[in-house]
Amino acid sequence: MNKLSLSALAAAGLLAGSLATSANAADLGGNCCADLExxxxxxxxxxxxxxxxxxxxxxxGWVGQQITFWDDGGxxxxxxxxxxRTLSSHVKFTGQATIAPGWSAGYVLHIExxxxxxxxxNQAYNAAPGWNGFDALQSYWFIKSDHWGKVSVGRQSQAxxxxxxxxxxxGSLVPANWVAFDVNSFNMRSSATGLLIxxxxxxxxxxxxxxxxxxxxxxxxxxxxxxDTPTFGGFSASASWGEDDMxxxxxxxxxxxxxxxxxxxxxxxxxxxxxxxxTFFGAFNAPETQYFQIGAYLQHIPTGLFVYGAYGxxxxxxxxxxxxxxxxxYIKAGxxxxxxxxxxxxxxxxxxxxxxxxxxxxxxxFAAGADEDLDVWGLGIVQxxxxxxxxxxxxxxxxxxxxxxxxxxxxxxxxxxxxxGALINF
Length: 426
Hints:
Elements: H1 3-25, H2 32-45, E1 58-71, E2 76-81, E3 90-100, E4 103-114, E5 121-122, E6 125-126, E7 133-145, E8 149-156, E9 187-189, E10 196-201, E11 222-228, E12 235-242, E13 246-257, E14 260-271, E15 288-300, E16 305-317, E17 323-340, E18 343-360, E19 371-385, E20 390-402, H3 404-408, E21 415-425
Antiparallel strand pairs: 1-2, 1-3, 1-21, 3-4, 4-7, 5-6, 7-8, 8-11, 9-10, 11-12, 12-13, 13-14, 14-15, 15-16, 16-17, 17-18, 18-19, 19-20, 20-21
GO cellular component, one term: membrane
GO molecular function, one term: porin activity
Organism: Hyphomicrobium nitrativorans NL23
């Protein structure tokens, strides 16, 4: 029973005691019982319920905010905002009911609250004010069998969403991953002129078109039908199909062996329908996309030493013959140890590289045969507070952009930032 239900019962008990005392002192033959039932009904109407008698209800989520101090080589500032789409503060309602032994049905309703959406922040502070508010990140129902697996229908994470990211068990996944959550919409600054370069956002390197930026190039929830197998010996698989038209498959493994914790996951997806114009490519329709990703995590349990890595290959084919291909590499290594009574402390260093090549024609800022190269390195520390289900972090990142694309636009100033934030679960 949740805290609100307990509070309601306690209040009802106090109310009942008060009314009973008044009734005994006045007139036992009055309408005290009818009045009590009415007051209890009022309390119950304003109290969050655990669920009906058949379907359970679990409420969970987190609140996360951070301060980002940035310098683009010509301007510096500090912003307060959230952690980016899919990592923003949110509340999730999950329910489940037993149909028969080994069979269940349920639902998930996942609402995100955007506050200075970090994916939209740039030197102009916020170029997309609409990225503040609420949105249904997930809304789907499912039927699950312990033996046959799970089928779910609705807006949800497709099989390849966050596949490579979620194997990261270091405790530093939120502040340090291979998606450009913090700098996606920041414009590059020309070394030659000192001016911002229109259409050259840092998050555009690698040209993700299905959600995501740098890595996780199919990273937004979609309306899909998804199937998940049961877990056999640490292995599980998923597949999904989405509208107009996306399909994907994923394979995962997690286990512990000889003092080591190991997890690995890989996924492949195709987007085959030319949809609405994609802003990164101007007037061109969204291309046919093939994306492969793999991520792996290894931790030595006794010492807390860990290493995590991810790789993604993104291929784009446009109806007018244009092509583009990029490779993204990410590695993070560090130490996870209980150095104080609060909880685990995580130290890490990270490196990311995105290299892209325009194979034919001209595409946005790309000329035929143009290439781009992005390097990102960073350091950070995370402190977990177990008693509050909370994490605090401070981190630094340095970005540099090269290749003949950078040369064509007069060179690019390096970008660097420090961020300090916290996330608390409920």
